[in-house]
Amino acid sequence: MTTTLITGGTVVNATGTNRADVLIDGERIVAVLAPGSTLLGHDLAAGVDRQLDATGKYVIPGGIDAHTHMEMPFGGTTASDTFETGTRAAAWGGTTMIIDFAIQKYGERVEDGLAEWHRKADGNCAIDYGFHQIIGGVDNDSLKAMDSLLDEGITSYKLFMAYPGVFYSDDAQILRAMQKAADLGLMTMMHAENGPAIDVLAEQLVEQGKTTPYYHGIARAWQLEEEATHRAIMLADVARAPLYVVHVSAKQAVAQLTAARDLGKNVFGETCPQYLYLSLEEQLGAPGFDGAKWVCSTPLRSRAEGHQDSLWQALRSNDLQMVSTDHCPFCMKEQKELGKDDFRKIPNGIGSIEHRLDLLYQGVVTARITLPRWVELTSTTPARMFGVYGRKGVIAPDADADIVIYDPQGHTSIGLGKTHHMNLDHSAWEGFEIDGHVDVVLSRGEVIVDESGYVGSKGHGRYVKRGLSQYLL
Ligand code: URP
Ligand code: ZN
Ligand code: ZN
Ligand code: ZN
């Protein structure tokens, strides 16, 4: 067992910041002490195996990305990051835990989908991981199978109001699943877009010859995100179930969540870096087929309409509680290209797992969020929301030593050939210049990234059985 002392840094938790040294014994943090402290008369620095100097830097709990899709089959192809490549890229960016989505569809057993996800991840991850369960085919069998999710350490599951014929659930199915979830104490995660209406608009656009990536954003109109968000909130209310809306991008959907929370409903929302920075006009509307890089659902929204400002504001006011990536990478070559003549055939998803902490930190730099809020949005609330708090999401005694030393004076240039370790032939974030730098990353006490780069190992990451959400009433 290695003992490590991180000295001279500013420890940032969701509760605040303080100058402190962090003592680690093996996999766990054992003490957070005033700088230069002795312990029972012993000079700590002299007694430890390893000392890490964090002078002038932030010492933060490792990031938790609660929304990723490694090796996800979609639109006739498969997301390009494996658990190995995706979790390694996560580590580079200061994320020390992911929660990925195991998948069940019509005619498939939930147990089989889950077993397949364990097979994909087991022995391959650089960092710890957990699973949510997608229920893409709600019927008596899958409802029954939800009973055993808690024993599997899965305390949240996702439904889709979008993608008819693939993952889609109608209102009756949603209500039944939510009632079941309320009984069990599971958190319902919702993809809130009106899929059947989107499919009508998409078909009409293609018939008019409007086939480029830009029209993906037009077909997936904000009204259809607002409407589905409202419907999900009302169905959850009837079922007395807590609700977590994933990848919120429209300001009108934020307003639905805000209104519901103001009425005391137990609803939550997540957004993703792409919705905070990128837009319908600049990215989806890029010349030729280039916009395909940014085809994801919900879609990037119009900058002119002010969605980005509204999302930042909601992150500050806690009407949105978390930022995850929805990491679902597809290469341009042979993957995004499937939709060259028809935007409906472009596999949906963006790769961002490596950049979430850096991108959100720009919100601190530009005075949109505070330093503790940065940590809360990227680590502490994900831990509380998905049942790993205490063990993860905080720098405190007894927590896993999942720690990032972040240099606010450092600089990170994003792009191919610079910082890019995702298995992707392009970067959705090409050219982004970041104030700040992930210097050192520890996963359960082991240094997995340092100034020389990634020094971790495949298979170090373990499956984490999660407890109940701390947001259940
Ligand atoms: O475009 C996206 N978001 N792809 C991943 C699947 C989903 O809906 O989260
Ligand atoms: Zn989704
Ligand atoms: Zn997703
Ligand atoms: Zn550095």
TrEMBL record:
UniProt PTM comment: Carbamylation allows a single lysine to coordinate two divalent metal cations.
Pfam entry (one): Amidohydro_1
Entry annotated with the keyword Hydrolase: yes
SUPFAM superfamilies, per the entry: Composite domain of metallo-dependent hydrolases, Metallo-dependent hydrolases
Coiled-coil ranges from the UniProt annotation: none
The Amidohydrolase-related domain, residue ranges: 58-447
Cofactors (names): Zn(2+)
Family per record: Belongs to the metallo-dependent hydrolases superfamily. Hydantoinase/dihydropyrimidinase family.
Full protein name: Dihydropyrimidinase
Organism: Microlunatus elymi
The encoding gene: hydA
